[in-house]
Amino acid sequence: xxxxxxxxxxxxxxxxxxxxxxxxxxxxxxxxxxxxxxxxxxxxxxxxxxxxxxxxxxxxxxxxxxxxxxxxxxxxxxxxxxxxxxxxxxxxxxxxxxxxxxxxxxxxxxxxxxxxxxxxxxxxxxxxxxxxxxxxxxxxxxxxxxxxxxxxxxxxxxxxxxxxxxxxx
Length: 169
Prior knowledge:
This protein is mainly beta. The chain has a single domain (33-155), classed as Sandwich (lipopolysaccharide transport protein A fold), CATH 2.60.450.10. The chain contains one helix and 14 strands. Strands 1, 2, 3, 4, 5, 6, 7, 8, 9, 10, 11 and 12 form a twelve-stranded antiparallel beta sheet that branches. β6 and β7 form a beta hairpin. The longest helix has 15 residues, at 2-16.
């Protein structure tokens, strides 16, 4: 039971960091600018997309996402972000938390982040992997699914305990 609680905490804390460009509703992160660097930028106003290609890095606050390509879809009416999709060598970093995948998709309206293509989420020495990792932002819940050879795997290291039995970070 304790291991399940620890796993839930690790996943919640780690995947919360993946919210990068989409931003949580009402958070301070939305007020901060997003700085995106890439080798090329292609915009398509008719299809409401901005595509960043080549050594992409997008930074907002203390969080950075790296990928080979980043596509942002925005609404016609108010130009709000509808979805953000990262392709190739996706890495999201925030403090000691890191998510790796071949592909990541954030859907703003659904409030979910989906990592696939060999996804792994790390926090310190702890790691969770599977075929698909889905994080529901508003509910702060995650689902890790396996399939085929990609079974769900979690490696969780116990926390040090002090003499009084309380956990030490």
